[in-house]
Amino acid sequence: MLQQHAITVRDVSGTWVLPIRVSARARRVFFAASASRGIELVVPRGADLRGLEALVEAHRDWLERRRAEYAEAARPIQPPERIALGTPKATYTVQYRSVPGARSRLREPEPGRLVFEGDRADPIAVARVFQAWLKAQARAVLPPLLETVAAGTGLSYRHCRIRLTRSRWGSCSRRRCIMLSASLLFLPEELVRHVMVHELCHTHHMNHSPAFWALVARHDPQWRSLRRRMREAGRTRVPSWVYR
Ligand SMILES: [Zn+2]
Q1: How far is the CA of 7 from the centre of ligand 1 (A)?
Q2: Ligand 1 center to residue 85 CA distance, Å?
Q3: Are 113 and 229 contained in the same domain?
Q4: Distance between Cα 212 and ligand 1 center (Å)
Q5: Is residue 164 assigned to a domain?
Q6: What is the pLDDT of residues 185-236, one digit of tens each?
Q7: Kind and range of the H or E element at 53?
């Protein structure tokens, strides 16, 4: 049955609720699955909601598989014991020191070892501290890398900003300002470069026209396979504390 913002799905494992998200950005109806939000049915604003149940019916197998995958990912965040970055390739072990009442902070007494001081029992405080650390790493690493990629391709931009975005790896404004997500650090460098080339090509074409893809192909001949790997990477490589 169709409720205002959800569809109740009945299957062999029982009954569950598929949330519907109305999106101003969406151009068509599609299923979205992410570690942070689980599975949703995304519909463009003003879309005709009739027929959605048939769509759910037609994708039942796919939904069941994803639902099993994300049941694990949707659990409350665990403070990380280990952080693995792809760019630059680095692994950090994390230790926790309980300091009641103290403002939470993260120290790096030696390369590869992080020490969290503060209240470990507060998952939001823990997440904030690791997010701030990730953004600082990203600010040090991503802008110089973007400069290198820009120089290598001959594509220029005006400014680079780092943010912690939920739904996008990067974007490019009409004023040729490029935004990069700090989550890119979890990806291997070839995927980070792939995102950077994509956004740099938007400095010439503010769309996904054939001319845009031709420019991408010139600077990133493997873009099709890399793009497929990006979808997988978003689900599997970015830990849940990044988005809390
Ligand atoms: Zn694009």
Answers
A1: 31
A2: 24
A3: yes
A4: 9
A5: yes
A6: 999 999 999 999 999 999 999 999 999 999 999 999 999 999 999 988 877 8
A7: helix 52-58
